[in-house]
Amino acid sequence: MDNIAGQNKGGRLAVNITVLILVLLWLLPTVGLFVSSFRDRDQISNSGWWQAPLAVDLNFRTRIATEPVREENGSFILEGNVFADPGLRDRFPDGEGVVAAYGTRAVDPAEFAAGEVSDLRAGGTVVIERDGTYRIVTPEAIDRGPTLYFEARTPPRFTLANYQTVLFADGMDRAFINTLTVAIPATIIPILIAAFAAYALAWMDFPGRGLLIAAVVGLLVVPLQLALVPLLSLHTSVGIGQSFLGIWLAHTGFGLPLAVYLLRNYMVGLPRDIIEGAKVDGATDFQIFVRIILPLSFPALASFAIFQFLWTWNDLLVAKVFLPSGAASQVMTVKIADDLLGSRGGDWGILATAAFVSIAVPLLVFFTMQRYLVRGLLAGSVK
Amino acid sequence: MKSRLYAGVATLALIAGGASAQDLLIAPGTEGFNWASFEEFSAAHDFSGQTVTITGPWLSVDADMVRNTMAYFEAATGATVNYSGSDSFEQDIVIAIQANSAPNIAVFPQPGLAADMAARGALSPLGAETAEWMIENYAAGQSWVDLGTFPNPDGEHEMFGFFYKVDVKSLVWYSPDAFDEMGYDIPASMEDLLALSQQIVDDGGTPWCIGLGSGAATGWPATDWVEDIMLRLHSPELYDQWISNELAFNSPEVIEAIETFGAFVHSDGWSQGGPEAVATTDFRDSPAGLFQIPPACYMHKQASFIPSFFPDGSVFGEDYSFFYFPSFAGKDLGDPVLGAGTQFAITRDSEATRGLIEFLKTPIAHEVWMAQSGFLTPHSGVNLDTFRDDSLRAMNQILLDATTFRFDASDVMPGEIGAGAFWTGMVDFVTGTSAEDVANAVQSRWDAMR
Amino acid sequence: MSPVLQGILTILIGVGGCVGYFYFSNMILDKVIFPARGPKAGHNINRANQVRPWLFLFPALFALGLYLAYPVVGSFWRSLFDRSGANFIGLGNYVDLFGESAFRTAVFNNLLWVLVVPAMATFFGLLIAQLTDRLSWGNIAKSLIFMPMAISFVGASLIWKFVYSANPDIGIINALRTSAGMVALDPLQVRFWNNFFLMFILIWIQTGFAMVILSAALRGIPEETIEAAIIDGANPFQVFFKIKVPQIMGTIVVVWTTITILVLKVFDIVYTMTGGNFGTHILPSYMMTYMFRDDGRATAVAFVIMLLVLPVMVWNIRQARQEMR
Question: Do A96 and A154 form a contact (C-beta atoms < 8 A)?
Fold first, then answer.
């Protein structure tokens, strides 16, 4: 029993509660985004996501049509039901609802209780009943129907429309494939290159080894932004320009220091006798590397692969600089940032959905490969 | 008459070859459009097998409209046009030019950026012929030519940008229902507008929805305000000097304009949510207040493109309308209009690219987009009946009624000012920094560029 | 060619090329240049073994040199020229930068970030690692806390807009404030403190990373030392601070350093949340305001970032050299 407060029941309860609170705190923001992705723009701006499962009172506007009008005792009568307004169809799909109050001005949409008769500004009277039926009586025929406002309780509503918009946006499928096209080679190539280099730095003796290790560590901290402009000019001058080849090379270069650093740290920790035994048996370095080191380093390779994959998948900056901006080579992050957010910027529901779509694959990768991640990282840092 | 029309269609079908009329939004021959210009252009150009690539700032609906319009160029010449849009066009085009992978045509919303590119030698001049054409055929043609003329790398002035699609910025959006219910009238002068704003506050309402949020470009909507006010306080000549920094950014005239804008934001109860909300509310979200019940605000000043961000199903004339952002009755400056526009510039020359610029001179290239939406044009040879709805026609009327037309200053200023220091300066101003300090900061950034 | 096919082909060529390079270069070395037979066999084997490390290292060194070392040198050189790149102005860009108050704010904020984010992320990571250590649902808890690591910075910024929004119908903080009878305010406009609200986003992301590594390190502590301490009558807090923490100090430092390095590279959070307004610029975001406009200034800012990391870099290199022994 070596927990901080693990010695008694009360202590264990306290630990459980603390962890629960922390987890909820960490989860809460993401939950907010997730719930919002199932709500439409109006709902999001009218009520917080935490109120999503509750029915809320909302105000609505309806324009009364001037037909069909009926003349009775010298007055003109318009009758109908406010819930039949086609503009409110998506709120009240069966054309039914309960009116709590109504009004004739937007400033006071609940001025009168349902069933109470009130005066129209242009002359005449109006009443809306609880079931939504209205009756307007005017002394003369009118050519423009009045605009009425009413308050009604609306049930919670969730929609998949946002997902439909995002997933079936023009070119999203192409962007998805492009992202994979960028991410997979940009994950595998640096691993291979780094593995060989890490082996040399860990197990081969040569002059300048210490200096090289120091250099790799030093390069870990080079800010990426520094490299963008000179590299783009370089790519242009050798004829690569903005292309998939260019972005693979760029990601390879940027990912290498961490890869070499992690892999070398892991490989150094491998048992010395196995490697020396193999050498005595006459195995070449190449054979040792392929037959012994690679299989043993699998956790470290996998953990770096996860990191690099997450990084290339989520990357926006490198993609914007090294890939041409046209639809043919857009990756998902660029598609979302430059196309969806630009044209649907005010639409929080779409933004939330776009964020969720873009993190779906990384999350999947993360949850399936999590075990390796922990094992690999451990080796890289725990002494 | 009718038989001649059919004959025209027949020749069209012959010329267009494979392209079928069904691909086109408006069937050739539809009454009202200038099909003669289309036929004539078609007969004179053939770019079969060639491709023209265009990048620009238009996305989704706008992108569809530009594609619909370019389809007529394709039908007329047999060329293929590939348009792609980006929200960060300004960055992308600079990167593409550095990487030597520029498209054939770039559509610049900011003359300042186009000027930078021209100075780097990235643009091909359009030639004196095009400039002459524009002087003759565009209303106030010389001013459009001037806005598209920049020094080349050798410092010589040449015309690089062809204006196509213009926006009007001096518009105030409102809900006719709300005005009607509260008994408010459309203000005829700036004095009336200020009085109306105060009256709305006295009635317990909030007059203005203002939102400066726009991601990394946060602050730009405020620059439009200041520019519009600048044109209403001072002469257009002074405005031009302000753009070229002959009139320092921290001169009293500019500070006066900034402070006048400040009245709309800082006066008690004038702006929805107060200055703090103004600074961060996304400009696309901010007009939503007009449509809330009860209304969160009664007026919203924004350019002609904003209805795309109104709630789905909003109808012009019923749910929303607009009026001209009025000028001071007490100043004798006429009715100035602030506008913006996009210019086509050649970033990679080819025969078909030149052809596309020629196509933009035909009335049909304008009319087809006028029949869609969000398109205003200074082209004097177009049929105004082809506008799809009254709102566009009314906006075009504002453009035509203008006694003075000036281009969005922040778009013409150098990028670091007009798309940088001016933006952040306005955010600082809204959240409490004094107009003097803001103006000094912008001017010092300008000084640092020399 | 469809991009899928192109992608598959690239993977094949890239991977095949790498494997082929290593395999054939080794073969050529062993069989052709220095064959391990003939009169000088022994000598040849030695020579081959001297060359081989460089064969293994060459691709990595080439890529590192081209993609990281060259830009560092190239950028420094560029930062000595004016905006057009034609006139040499020495340290003029640096002098001008330090004359800008916005730049000084950015440096100050950046120092805050470098101090606070790694400290808090490591602290929370350690706390959660310790608390979940023997918990039956500890692994689930850890997975959930690690999850933000998989989210892009842009996605994370969006998530936090639903927390920080000034509109009480969108932002949960202001919903709580208004329901408690306080006025809604925009947390991102509260001068000075808004920096900390932005930092918390990165802390939220990085805590999972710290937690995973530290929890593994905690498990690596030999049971005997802890048992001995308990027998000696140490209370749980003493066990934790006096026995456990010192033993995993090395790991704590590595975690701290890794996060510090990350902090100096992240610009997305500030860029998308505030655009650097309200006094929240940090150096990487400040650099973006010059990028592609005045490359001289932009590279000068980048170099100041490098200078800030220098102590971390030097310390790491010394650490690496110590380990070698």
Answer: no
